[in-house]
TrEMBL record:
Its EC number is 2.7.4.9. One of its GO terms (biological process) is dTDP biosynthetic process. It comes from Haloarcula japonica (strain ATCC 49778 / DSM 6131 / JCM 7785 / NBRC 101032 / NCIMB 13157 / TR-1). It catalyses: dTMP + ATP = dTDP + ADP. ATP binds at residues 7-14. Belongs to the thymidylate kinase family. This is Probable thymidylate kinase. Pfam families: Thymidylate_kin. One of its GO terms (cellular component) is cytoplasm. InterPro entries: P-loop_NTPase (IPR027417), Thymidylate_kin-like_dom (IPR039430), Thymidylate_kinase (IPR018094). The keyword Iron-sulfur does not apply. One of its GO terms (molecular function) is dTMP kinase activity.
Amino acid sequence: MLVTLEGLDGSGKTTVWERLRSDDTVPDDAVFTREPTDTWYGDAVQRSIDDDDADSLAELFLYTADHAAHLSNTVRPALGEERLVVSDRYSDSRYAYQGATLEASETFDDPLSYVREVHAPWTRPPDRTVYLDLDPETAARRSGATNKFETADYLSTVRNNYERLIDADPERFVRVDATADPDTVYERVRAAILD
């Protein structure tokens, strides 16, 4: 089973992911992974994130390459062994974030749909996605607005994109209020995964 953790920067995904890794109720053979990855593909993505002038379309293809390698080298092999895979960010992040980035270019009628089409051959849909829901202003404050993807205006578009994804596939998504105290958030995420 492939479970993904999604949400705006500052929503607590990585904190929850790290706690799950040390939770003894999670299967011992579970695979914990993330995007961008720790490979040279992920390094290229990180360099692009740090470059305020990076071309948004080129950036999309860097993310897609990282995702394709992640799927091939980590996700599919683990699923083939019938292991639980928990990923901190996955394809929905691409759709929501790169869809928002391309929206500024005014080249595409529906940037989110374009990103999904580009990604389609190189992905495998998650079985369950836990969406940590947080308003853009709180997300920007929590994340520190340290890069171009962490401003409240940008995150507002990202959040709208996540809402579109949830509306299109409501059975897959489990919404968790990320404004609750950290222990409550963790328990709700853990229950959504293990149940």
